[in-house]
Amino acid sequence: MKLYYFPGACPLASHIVLEWIGKPYETVRLTREQTKEADYLALNPTGAVPTLVDGDFVLTQSAAILNYLAELNPQADLLGDTPRERAETHRWLGLCNSDLHKTFSLVFGASQFSGGDEAVAQVLAVKAIEHLRGLLSITNNQLRGRDWLTGKRSVADTYLFVILLWTGFKQIPLDGLDELRRFQEHMQADAGVQAAMKAQGLI
């Protein structure tokens, strides 16, 4: 099994899950230029990461990869045991993937959506950060009295952890979001998280 990634990007969530599963895997570190080359585009036509290759099966999109890894390795118990538990995992994974990550795209690359107008790009980024704070407040509330988003460790936790790393990269304050700070510290102390981050050169 092979995971293609950029350091600190969303494939870190899958990288952590691969560590939690504990089975052999390899990673391929890419540059943004390499994702636009023909060989890689043959694997992932979007020219993005992550891409997971498992034998002759090629899978893209973080949420799909996380679900695939969890379903392939039920002993790791990263989705939940019942339909309701799995629905909760998918709910919070969806919020991370479809809401938080989507909004962060305006923080990282607002100029792509501004038509080259830097003033517009700045407004988009500021509004995106405001929206992020609201979404992060929802996850902060969910974590009260819990170490994990659903009450037990799941693939959703790895995605939220990556999102929180990005708040540090972009210096977005987490003041007033004490549960998120606690969650981040809890994850950073995890051996699988540390192994994945070390492999990506993040610690």
Describe what is shown at a glance:
This protein has 203 residues and is α+β, with helices and mostly antiparallel strands. It has helices at residues 11-21, 38-43, 62-72, 83-108, 118-142, 155-169, 178-188, 191-199, and strands spanning 2-5, 26-29, 51-54, 57-60. Helices cover 56% and strands 8% of the residues.
Describe this structure in words.
With 203 residues, the chain is an alpha+beta fold. The chain folds into 2 domains: 2-76 and 195-199, 3-Layer(aba) Sandwich (Glutaredoxin); 83-190, Up-down Bundle (Glutathione S-transferase Yfyf (Class Pi), Chain A, domain 2), CATH 1.20.1050. The protein has 8 helices and 4 strands. The protein has a 4-stranded mixed sheet with strand order 2-1-3-4, covered by helices on one side. Helix 1 links the parallel strand 1 (2-5) and strand 2 (26-29). Helix 1 packs across helix 6 (155-169), helix 1 (11-21) crosses helix 8 and helix 4 (83-108) runs antiparallel to helix 5 (118-142). The protein is globular. The model has no long low-confidence stretch (mean pLDDT 96).
